[in-house]
diguanylate cyclase
Amino acid sequence: MMMAGGLSLALVLLVIGIAIGLRLARRQSKTNAAMSQDERERMLQMLHELGAWTSEYSGNVSQYQSRLGELSDAVRVDPAVHQAAPKVVSLLQQIMDSNSQLKSRLDAAERQLDKQTKQIESYLTEARTDGLTGLYNRRAFDQRLDELFAAFRKGGRSFVFVLVDIDHFKSFNDTHGHQVGDQVLQQVAKTLRLELQESIMVARFGGEEFSVLMNGPLRIAAEKMNEVRKKMAALQIEIGAKKLSVTISVGLTEPRDDLVVSPVVRRADEALYAAKNIGRNRVYYHDGKGAMLVGAPEVARG
């Protein structure tokens, strides 16, 4: 009975844990306050541990039930306990019935926990992912940028902030329709994801603009983005029977003696503006003094 009571209490605590987790996840999906990566991982780890715990106890209860059945059978045929057998068998049967009910509840809790863990994972993913491209969204990116900048201010590693803009994107929508525009966004996102697998984060910044967090130094990151630019320009995006060429403009910078992160974003934006204003399909980096082109102009046009 103590075992049944203990497990029943554990089930109550388990249900409370699930309810708290769901409430946190739903609140997270409806507010602008983002959970940190560590908090998300801790929540999911807790749920997986609860699932493993439930599964383990379910197995223990099954073994317990099996042993009770063996004991009941032994009592029925043992002459030494013939007179007491009816009472013993009745008691064992009551315990087995209670244990069977407990096993059913535990199995149901295990299934519910698995279902709700998947729901919470879905909530957390939706809160951080752009639905069209599958990349991280602006909120997730801003949070990661703030985390990196705070660490940098405390003496941590530097990083490179990158803005990527699709050239003449409006013309894709105006000429071919918004569905084609969406396909262009998806293809650019796919290319960035594949070419920048070693980066810290790739995200959709908004509209036709993407953002990337990379490891430094700045000039090496700029050369890498220029290679990505060239590959993008050489890529033919098939839209039905049509093949479209897409180019990108890129601006990037790194934190310097900034007290807040906004000047970092501003410098990257200035570098991107220079790339677009001088002819597009170019990469410019801002070293704190001004925007500078990566490569010779004739190379950048390619």
Q: What stands out?
A: Confidence is low (pLDDT under 50) at residues 1-7, 29-33. The chain has nine helices and eight strands.
